[in-house]
Amino acid sequence: MLRLRPLTWPQDRDALARLDVSFATAVVDAVERRGPLELALVERRVDPPLTKRYAVDWDAVAAAPHVTVAERDGMVVGVAAVTWQAWNRRAELSHLYVDAAARGRGVGAGLLRAAEAAARSMGARRLWVETQQVNAPAIRFYLREGFTCCGWDAALYEDEREVAVFFVAPTT
């Protein structure tokens, strides 16, 4: 059974640090320019599969105004953090990590529901999230969960082969 609870800091630090927040994929979304103002994500197979490991600053995660931890059988299996931008009443899902061994079992969806509830409690109009075009599993997850693509940034990352893709969902 999945249990969602608020972060307990710094007690949860070690459990979070043990999460495998990497991903591997044989499919990435290449960014194609189709015109001066039009970009498209086009699915491409990659061989060998791409593996990416995130270096997470857990202190920064813990500093978010709303952090939810997911536990299964007493073990921490995921975390989500939501920040707030008052000027446009937008909540940002600034972090969402599910341990690799726990994926595909509803942990991400549960954390996302908690993030949406936090966004509503903050008075947010929208919940916004960013991921990379190479993280096809995350892109598919956000689309399945009702998010829509709302923008791109080809200059956000130091690795210029990656493009930031932004998604948004209403909080109502």
Automatic annotation (TrEMBL):
Residues 2-172 form the N-acetyltransferase domain. PANTHER family: GNAT FAMILY N-ACETYLTRANSFERASE, LD18367P. It comes from Roseisolibacter agri. The lineage of its organism: Bacteria, Pseudomonadati, Gemmatimonadota, Gemmatimonadia, Gemmatimonadales. Gene3D superfamilies: 3.40.630.30. It comes from the Bacteria. This is N-acetyltransferase domain-containing protein. InterPro entries: Acyl_CoA_acyltransferase (IPR016181), GNAT_dom (IPR000182), NAT_camello-type (IPR050769). GO terms for molecular function: N-acetyltransferase activity. Keywords: Transferase. The keyword Transferase applies. Signal peptide: none annotated.
